[in-house]
């Protein structure tokens, strides 16, 4: 069972990206932190954690400082870096928002208790402190909506109540068009007492006009050996083989590695593999039909007997066997509506994305960079049927699935359409 997230005791405990963090601490100490800042990086890189820590440094009642010495050759004796005490009223209230998922779930549950007429106009907002407002993507579409941004704009024009500044954290870059346009207005003329942090896995999702009005800091991936060392220290119960796999699957994100649920990932990956096997089988059949030769029998993946293979929704292969579309559609039918279905779909799409990246790495001749290292043999077999052009098309189709789900399209139908598209031959 994974433990609840906790905030690092100080900036020195924040994992990785030391230079980026120190530049932000220096800016806070000097009173030069930009009014709007995009913190980007992969999921689990610590963007939200860092945003809370920066908010604490801005709003801490004690405003402690750390003096960092320079090399004598630089001609400077030191540099002031912002800290937070972690104990004052401002710090403790801000730190209470570290478990964002729990906070959002509580806000959604509270909204469900409202009358139907009030639910429509009630947006999910997290406010652990009068001068800190957190805007997460609003369920079920998981977009930051106009009502949330309007609340930000309204409160930004009030003076801080208890702290030196008002801080607003947008925890994702995916916004409704109207919300993005409204946010642009406050970014053009921000009040002097306001700081806005926008967290983004992919800053390209933001409007160019928003990006041009914000400073940007990227949290880069940590090296594999650092991630493995972190897992040895923090999750010593994980066996060495699983540790190596988690280190690669976490994509250099320390937070993702520490919270990685390998069982849940492998379950999602088993479903993702059904899409790829189905597509590979269909493409082999199409090639065999075009050439007039019978399709060769497929060999079972290493370590799987036929009964286990069948239990994973894959029909037994044989000469000229058609891929089992019925089994695939039965699988996609399990991706129902609701919060559980949404989490399951997100896990499936992430697993598919990583598998497609691995196929691309094999195609480019860099197998040493594979993430799903335990599937090397099967990925080799799949790569013989799935060309670069097919991988490119599949990646675009995956983006379309993400877009459709944000528009609240039915999940099972979106996945069925995705599977059918993958099974079509690529025409040059």
Task: Give a written overview of the molecule.
The structure is a single chain. With about 425 residues, the chain is an alpha/beta fold. The chain folds into three domains: about 15-65 and about 80-220, 3-Layer(aba) Sandwich (Rossmann fold), CATH 3.40.50.300; about 225-260; about 260-420, no CATH class. Helix content is about 50%, strand content about 10%. It is built from 18 helices and eight strands. The strands form two sheets. Strands 4-5-6-7-1-8 form a six-stranded mixed sheet, sandwiched between helices. Strands 2-3 form a two-stranded antiparallel sheet. α6 packs parallel to α7 and α14 packs antiparallel against α18 (about 410-420). It is globular, with a radius of gyration of 24 Å. The chain starts with 17 loop residues before the first helix and ends in a 6-residue tail after the last helix. About 35% of the residues are buried. Residues about 310-320 have low confidence and may be disordered.
Structural class: alpha/beta
- Helix proportion: 40-55%
Strand content range: 5-15%
- Total of domains: 3
Would you tell me which CATH topology of the largest domain applies?
Answer: Rossmann fold
For the biggest β-sheet, the strand order reads 4-5-6-7-1-8
Element string (H = helix, E = strand): HEHEEHHHEEHEHEHEHHHHHHHHHH
Determine Rg (CA atoms, Å): 24 Å
What number is the mean pLDDT?
86
CATH class of the largest domain: Alpha Beta
Please name the fourth-level CATH homologous superfamily of the largest domain: P-loop containing nucleotide triphosphate hydrolases
Distance between the termini: 49 Å
